[in-house]
Specification:
Tetracycline Repressor, domain 2; 301 residues; CBS-domain; 2 domains; mainly alpha; 11 helices; 3-stranded mixed beta sheet
Amino acid sequence: MCRIVGVDLKHYKDFAHYLNYVYIINDEKQLIGVISYRDLLLAQPDECIADVMETSIAKVLDTTTQAEVARMIGRYDFVSLPVVNEDNILVGIIRADEVFDIVVSEANRDIEMLFASGKEIDFRTKPFVATYRRLPWLILLLFIGLVSGSIISRFEATLEAVVALAFFMPLIAGMTGNTGTQSLAVVVRGLASEDITFRAALKLILRELIVGVSLGIICGVVISVIAFIWQGSMILGLVVGSSLLCTLIIGTIAGTVIPLILNKFKVDPAVASGPLITTINDILSLLIYFGIATMFLSKLT
């Protein structure tokens, strides 16, 4: 049936302030087209809706998750999206402002996971509840952190021979953790806004590798100069600088690859929390630092 465009738009006055489109359905209530209010007003009064409506419609199923809808609206800047069932019957409309609360909720949850603060903790959470929710992560990190202590004890002879190495330990571990957390934040934010293909993932890893190498060279040269000026040892500067170069590269790659792997296995990448990445990078950085220092131990002493 041909519906004439020249309709009384006063009928839409109650909801026109938040909807910019009119969705067209057939007699079976199936979604068949969409037309904007602007096109509706500019069309000739004797034109049929079928002649002016768009039949290529962006829509979502009623089984689509809230996060996917929010991602779709954010990516394509939709003002609203029609919701249909498996039979293409229009069952509802989602407005962009309704998605805002979902986005905020998802962002809060990712932040909580990113910093291992546990499940929903806010200003009103009771102290013992907050403690209970944070404790599992911290216990896990505590045991992982014990590995760092065992690494230090293993290289005790190296530390005793060159005490100055202890001065740079917090710097090496801290810088590695920081770069890993930065890369993690970039990846988690990117995964929340777009779908990552295999090619895009490789491109991202390559970019972060270049970033890690660049940061490592700059920071490595700076710390090498500082170590040389402080101790007057070019070998010590070489050890500290090369260690920082290697650890920054590894830290950046770890912060990029781990959330991508988790996302591949349908695990929320925010689970790869900042503290977890930092702890893992601490272990790797200490192994590299003391490994390089032990190789040059004879020249350091």
